[in-house]
Amino acid sequence: xxxxxxxxxxxxxxxxxxxxxxxxxxxxxxxxxxxxxxxxxxxxxxxxxxxxxxxxxxxxxxxxxxxxxxxxxxxxxxxxxxxxxxxxxxxxxxxxxxxxxxxxxxxxxxxxxxxxxxxxxxxxxxxxxxxxxxxxxxxxxxxxxxxxxxxxxxxxxxxxxxxxxxxxxxxxxxxxxxxxxxxxxxxxxxxxxxxxxxxxxxxxxxxxxxxxxxxxxxxxxxxxxxxxxxxxxxxxxxxxxxxxxxxxxxxxxxxxxxxxxxxxxxxxxxxxxxxxxxxxxxxxxxxxxxxxxxxxxxxxxxxxxxxxxxxxxxxxxxxxxxxxxxxxxxxxxxxxxxxxxxxxxxxxxxxxxxxxxxxxxxxxxxxxxxxxxxxxxxxxxxxxxxxxxxxxxxxxxxxxxxxxxxxxxxxxxxxxxxxxxxxxxxxxxxxxxxxxxxxxxxxxxxxxxxxxxxxxxxxxxxx
Length: 463
Ligand code: PMP
Known about the structure:
Layout: H1 3-13, H2 21-27, E1 32-36, E2 39-42, E3 47-50, H3 53-56, H4 65-77, H5 90-102, E4 107-113, H6 116-133, E5 141-145, H7 154-159, H8 163-166, E6 176-179, H9 184-188, H10 195-213, E7 218-223, H11 239-248, E8 253-256, H12 271-274, E9 281-284, E10 296-301, H13 302-311, H14 325-340, H15 343-360, E11 368-374, E12 377-382, H16 397-407, E13 410-411, E14 413-415, E15 418-421, H17 429-451, H18 455-461
Parallel strand pairs: 3-13, 5-6, 5-7, 7-8
Antiparallel strand pairs: 1-2, 2-3, 4-10, 9-10, 11-12, 12-15, 14-15
Bound molecules: 4'-deoxy-4'-aminopyridoxal-5'-phosphate.
4'-deoxy-4'-aminopyridoxal-5'-phosphate is lined by residues 115-117, 120, 149-151, 224, 228-229, 257, 259-260, 285, 296.
């Protein structure tokens, strides 16, 4: 079917996630038809380097026949059965065991979900249930961070700190507070603050909030090791040690959202390992199956698991697709491949450091105020070359740069004027060179567009 026919049907019937429906209808969507390795192909025959691994999830890259085979075999054997009502099946049991072996030692149980959002809904119900079982039902407040993303369900939106999401959909789940994010470039740098002092100040904000709410009312703190959707925000080195020190002074659960950072993104199996955190609960999804099928879960630490098991009775919570056998079989095979091929170690020791060197060099570009990366996640902060300050957001420089990237054969996402990459973990050095070259060209094109003040010509330059 020709692209324009797909676009017409798309416009007529399909409401896309995180999309201005009307604007997209007018523009028409790009139709992606197939993919292999680190490349996606659109219906027009363009081959595009996927610098975002889909949506931060295709860790093993596209086209892995082993995952196709795992799904096919499992579909033939047992396409569906649930694990309600005292039943289970081998794929989910095996996956639970594998996850607990790979996770830090004190995490020995898992609750399966269909997505990261459902994982965070589970987290919210579980932490409040835990404290109720401990005889402290008043401990209900959960503290998250501004600009955090924890999903799109009502609990996910409430735990997250995205102002644009909070503004839609009516009242949120009560008793969720937010504290400042450790985003030095945006919040520390303009004030001329030293990054490490800024990191400590952000941790202090958590302590202030705990005291304000009263420790006896606070159930948990939730955060990503590195904030992904918020802008690939890598906290200053001082931040996590200072947060750990705060948490050590209070009896509050730590929830580390590993939906993006888990499964090798930061060069360890979990971001918690990189930052030496001991989470009580760890929501996971995305890279768990390399995005081939939808599956998520919550890894549960011994302290919470023992209470839920020994004192809890029935936990009235679960999803039709919790531990879906086909998704579990694919996730299991995905983890086996990540292990057998040493993918995570390669991110830490080889390809992560390689990306870091090449990425950092983009700071020499006049549009780039900061280039940061850790493992295989990275961000560029776009700034006005004249002033070194951020552009007026309404100019849409980040969106322009993103569109120019796409037109030049690279998927790089924009969050405001922050450009983000999170490529498949199997990306080669030559493919990183290609990514950098394409990013450089898109930056040059963005700069050229900005330099040309005649609107007519600017429109001509648009892809
Ligand atoms: N937590 C984090 C940190 C995420 O990045 C996301 C998705 N981008 C989610 C939760 C929600 O996951 P899902 O889209 O699978 O519901």
